[in-house]
């Protein structure tokens, strides 16, 4: 999906299942992905939402198809975990790094209790993407914002669409001082059908943008 002034800024996808782990990591490798954003837990309530497609513990290693994934470090935050992964292509003997972000406070079909925590999470994702693109140096010579960010939830449309819409709108607000949530979601749905599943998720985008604008001093706090 396109982002703000960036074609193919995101790869929106459903949560990987055990039978698709190899396909998922092959896609990550082929698209030169640096950052993966997971907006669901593997299990919510009594339902399986997404497979455990990366090694969970520090030092753990799993092989998915021809991609070996090593968990180098996990940084635990209040509302999300950030895992540093090392990828090894067993066919080409190449090695790369990737960052995995898992947001922990977003119920399926619902919205986070706090827009602030999600916006802070988004900020951490964007900072890490910039850091990793900078580390590539001349190895990366296409779009300055880097390769696409993989974003997934369970089905890959509700929470995934909300996250991407917020990123687009906040980037536009920062750049030109205005935005259009309706047109943003409309364009997203032309590329990934049904992005943002519920009225509450759509309404949450507006509330989150308002909270962000107030925090940044763009609006009086009483409006």
UniProtKB/TrEMBL annotation:
Entry-linked SMART domains: PTPc (SM00194), PTPc_motif (SM00404)
| Organism (species) | Nothobranchius furzeri (Turquoise killifish)
Protein name (record): protein-tyrosine-phosphatase
Q: Which InterPro entries match?
A: Prot-tyrosine_phosphatase-like, Protein-Tyr_Phosphatase, PTP_cat, Tyr_Pase_AS, Tyr_Pase_cat, Tyr_Pase_dom
* Tyrosine-protein phosphatase domain segment(s): 1-212
Specify the domain of life of the species encoding this protein.
Eukaryota
What are the record keywords, sorted?
A: Hydrolase, Protein phosphatase, Receptor
Q: Which gene encodes it?
A: PTPN9A
- EC number of this enzyme: 3.1.3.48
